[in-house]
Amino acid sequence: MYDVTEIRKDFPILSREVNGKPLVYLDNGASAQKPQVVIDAITQAYSFEYANVHRGLHYLSNLATDKYEAVRGTVQKFLNAAHEDEILFTSGTTEALNMISYAWAAPKLQAGDEIILSVMEHHANIVPWHFLRERQGVVLKWVDTDVNGDLDPQAVIDAIGPKTKIIAITHMSNVLGTVVDVKSICTAARARGVPVVVDGSQSSVHMPVDVQDIGCDFFAITGHKLYGPTASGALYVRRDRMAEMRPFMGGGDMIREVSRDVITYNDPPHKFESGTPGIVQMIGMGVALNYMMGLGMGNIATHEHILRDYAQTKLSGLNWLNIQGNSETKGAIFSFTLDGAGHPHDISTVVDQRGIAVRAGHHCAQPLMQHLGVTATCRASFGLYNTTEEVDKLVDALELCHDLFA
Ligand code: PLP
User: Fold this and answer.
1) Domains identified in the chain and CATH numbers
2) Of 45, 135, 196, 322, which is least surrounded by CB within 10 A?
3) Contact criterion met (CB below 8 Å) for 338 and 345
4) Residues near 85 by Cβ (< 8 Å), separated by ≥ 6?
5) pLDDT recorded at residue 340
6) Could you give phi then psi for residue 32, rounded to 5 degrees?
7) Is 378 a known active-site residue?
8) Is the four-CA dihedral 66, 71, 77, 83 of positive or negative sign?
9) 28 Cβ closer than 6 Å to some ligand 1 atom
């Protein structure tokens, strides 16, 4: 049974106060808090088990290497990848998506080739493709969301043409919470030989993910949203696609031999991981993923669906609150503006006085803001430790904002 009261005890920060009130942390979409097991693993690694990986023949280096490399198997299990060597370690989703752009796409794409994006992508899944537009004349083709914030998979499929070389799509919007039917997109794209990049930064936090079932070519996750350390993450690359990739960053570890005239590369996945990595961060991420799998991804999803339904009912009862995106598939992420209220920053400042952490701004999704006709929203994003009582506190604080600003 999923006991949220007990689970909250795993997260020391949740017992603190902010502005004299118990912390209500609703900024999980930006970054999630860390359970004690992750904090302990980091302390243990730095205190007693630290050395550089892969290079040493001494005890500590081997120990650190074993712990670090074991995380590959953990990510494989978390994503249900077919092979451990399909998992690349990254510093997060931004690095992962840039890697695909530089390592897979840049050598293959030519002027006039097309990349399909949805309008609700995070800048991390836009800017690396803009680089190819600027530098190589690649064309970006945008697919809009409908009035509910849904992305019709058929609209994405219909956008595929003879020049389409990549589809890069989010699995879950960090602004609207919309969950995209990436499986249908992948099935159709594969039949046409078009690879699909899935940004799983948000979805992987809230639901079980099976990359084999989805049928994607690339799937990116980020440790700091998965209750793990910052600067940790992973990129799933299906074996056949990894074989097509050119090394991205050059340096130590990714080579087999270097001479004055030639270099030979290490085997994948190491061929794509150069320099000293985030050793302790990755070890911490492995512990975080095991923590989540221990709770059960299905159980986390069920808990968050209860929160979503509760929040949806409560928030839609506030007739002066404009909720952006009402997809039936949405997760527990709510973006909104208030009638008559100033900038969403004002809302976040007022609710912060009540100990409630929400985010305001464009959420690194400016094309979506333009599509919605707003410059910014306020966003409450829920995680595995949030409660319906916290939804009530948010609603009370928003009512205060309404009284103040209306
Ligand atoms: N994609 C989405 C949907 C996100 O929400 C984020 C982070 O906010 C990113 C990409 C960027 O991830 P990272 O912080 O790991 O670079």
Assistant:
1) 4-30+296-405 (3.90.1150.10), 40-294 (3.40.640.10)
2) 135
3) no
4) 72, 239, 242, 267, 268, 269
5) 72
6) -100, 160
7) no
8) negative
9) no
What spacing in Å lies between the alpha carbon of 219 and ligand 1's midpoint?
A: 13
DSSP 178: P
Mutate which of 27, 122, 182, 218 for ligand 1? The one with the most ligand atoms within 8 Å of its CB, which is 122
Mean pLDDT of the chain: 97
Amino acid (one-letter) located at 57: L
Q: What pLDDT, in 10s, does the model give residues 91-124?
A: 999 999 999 999 999 999 999 999 999 999 999 9
Assess whether the C-beta atom of 178 lies below 6 angstroms from ligand 1. Answer: no
pLDDT above 90 covers what percent of the chain?
Answer: 95
Query: How would DSSP label each residue in 232-292?
Result: -EEEEE-HHHHTTPPP-S-STTSEEEE-SS-EEEPPTTGGG--SS--HHHHHHHHHHHHHH
Q: What is the distance in A from the centroid of ligand 1 to the CA of 94?
A: 6
Residues 6+ apart with CB under 8 A from 248: 98, 99, 102, 103, 272, 274
What is the number of the ligand 1 atom nearest to the C-alpha of 170? Answer: 3
Confidence of residue 342 (pLDDT cuts 50, 70, 90): low
pLDDT digits (tens, 9 = 90+) for 365-382: 999 999 999 999 999 999
Span from the CA of 190 to the centroid of ligand 1 (angstroms): 25
Catalytically annotated residue among 216, 364, 378, 401: 364
CA dist 184 and 136 (Å) reads: 30
